[in-house]
Amino acid sequence: MLNRNIQPEIVEPKQLTVQRPERIRLPNGVSLNVLNTGDNEVVRIDLIMEGGRWQQTQPLQSLFTNRMLREGTRRYTAAEIAEKLDYYGAWLELSGASEHTYITLYSLNKYLPETLDVLESIVKEPTFPEKELEVILNNNIRQFLVNTSKVDFRAHRGLVKALYGEQHPCGRLVQEEDYHRITPSVLRAFYRRFYHSENCSIYLSGKVTDDCLRRIEALFGKEPFGTDFRRPEQKSYMPVTVPEKRIFIEHPDALQSAVRMGMPSLSCTHPDYLKTRVLVTLFGGYFGSRLMSNIREEKGYTYSISAGIMSYPQQSILVIGAETTNECVEPLIAEVYHEIDRLQNELVSDEELGVVKNYMLGDMCRGYESAFSLADAWIFVYASGLQDTYFADALKAVKEVTAQEIRELAGKYLCKERLKEVVSGKKMS
Questions:
Q1: pTM of the prediction?
Q2: Is the pLDDT of residue 429 over 70?
Q3: Which helix (H) or strand (E) holds 408?
Q4: Which residues does 280 contact at the CB level (< 8 Å), separation at least 6?
Q5: Helix (H) or strand (E) holding 288
Q6: Distance CA 316, CA 319 (A)
Q7: Where are the beta strands (DSSP E) in 225-349?
Q8: What local confidence, expressed as pLDDT, does residue 81 receive?
Q9: For 275-289, how does the pLDDT look when each residue is reduced to its tens digit (9 = 90+)?
């Protein structure tokens, strides 16, 4: 019988075996990455186009080009696309990032011919109909106006603008008038430039059969598709950080204030990045972190506070975020600095570091256990320009980081003088 009074033994994984994709170069040059795993009769197809916010000529161009793909093609109307995917139990996701856009289809194997027919039409022959675009823009404008009334939304915008500057793609904040500048011709221009076979990679995951491979190659791998076959230009931008330490964004009716603190941080490819992740997790990256234990559990200043590294090309940012009553803003910020001082001056106990390591190791094991989570992991590696050894390196960093290294990393990368403080809320007299 299992004795539930005895804690199960904690077993650290000695190695992290992450299935690598089989990489195939299709006849038209498209890179096909296959993760054939799982017993369920379902597959996921991810088409990744290089070209995102950093390559657009005006705000929102990349976002709405991608979003409008499902709103009508030469063969199907928006209603027919929605009806057909729903009838065959398929799911379509359209998303974008700084330098890539993503088209993701989940489909049952037995209906793959029908769902791939819709996917091909979406990718190769969208029409960007004006009527549907107007409806989507109006809905997004309403949602944007709702968001701008929220203190957390305004604080985050204020932070990225303060850290990057208005000329940087990350610091160029979208305004309501930007929505009105989006037209079908603007979207078609972005589509022609970036949606083509020379700019496309495909990730195929799930129960991948030979029939599935043949169909993918026939539709997306035989003949070149698109018109402008140039690769995207690699653009570089210099952040221009404002000199002010504190930025206040007034919201007179706010019952709570949003606090965002941030500073430039390490890119994913930096040699110290993986061990710094352990530091940031200990500091504010999980429920038992220093910030949560002190500011939520002991002081009661907030319901939730967190810290994390937000990855952007070339340079990421460390962000600390919380919402609190207007009266508790200053004490909360003071406690954040107090916890930084502790990390810089005191060694973390073996017990606390062990808890953080076990949490991160368990999270890593859970993150790579299914076909689709594997696809997400390898797409992250591809989009971030990392090596195939990333997962083994991450495991090694978590297992080997020491308390002394945590203190040294805190001294290097948790710099109180560089932290910007953005507060959005009611002005206190």
A1: 0.91
A2: no
A3: helix 403-413
A4: 307, 308, 309, 318
A5: none
A6: 10
A7: 246-250, 256-265, 302-310, 316-325
A8: 98
A9: 999 999 999 999 999
Rounded average pLDDT over 63-74: 97
How far is it, in rounded angstroms, from Cα 385 to Cα 10?
Answer: 34
pLDDT in tens, 198-238: 999 999 999 999 999 999 999 999 999 999 888 888 778 88
Nearest to 325 by CA among 343, 353, 303, 347: 303
* CA gap 96, 53 in Å, rounded: 8
Q: Which residues contact 419 (CB under 8 A, 6 or more apart)?
A: 261, 262, 263, 320
Helices of type H across 60-201: 61-67, 78-87, 112-124, 130-147, 151-164, 176-180, 184-194
Task: Give residue 209's region: left, alpha or beta (phi > 0; psi -120 to 50).
Answer: beta
CATH number at residue 308: 3.30.830.10
Distance CA 100, CA 261 (A): 27
For the four alpha carbons of 266, 271, 273 and 278, in that order, the dihedral sign comes to negative
Residue 149: pLDDT above 70?
A: yes
Considering the domain boundaries, does residue 117 fall inside one? yes
pLDDT in tens, 14-54: 667 789 999 999 999 999 999 999 889 999 999 999 999 99
From CA 272, how far away is CA 322, in angstroms rounded?
26
DSSP state of 77: B
Please answer whether residues 356 and 282 qualify as being in contact, where contact means their C-beta atoms are separated by less than 8 angstroms. Answer: yes
* 149 in a structural domain: yes
DSSP string spanning 83-111?
HHHHHTT-EEEEEE-SSEEEEEEEEEGGG
279 and 341 inside one domain: yes
Token pair 């962000």: residue: 319
And the tokens for 429? Answer: 């007299």
Six-digit token string for 346: 């005191």
Tell me the residue range of the domain where 116 lies. 22-220
Residues 209 and 250 in one domain: no
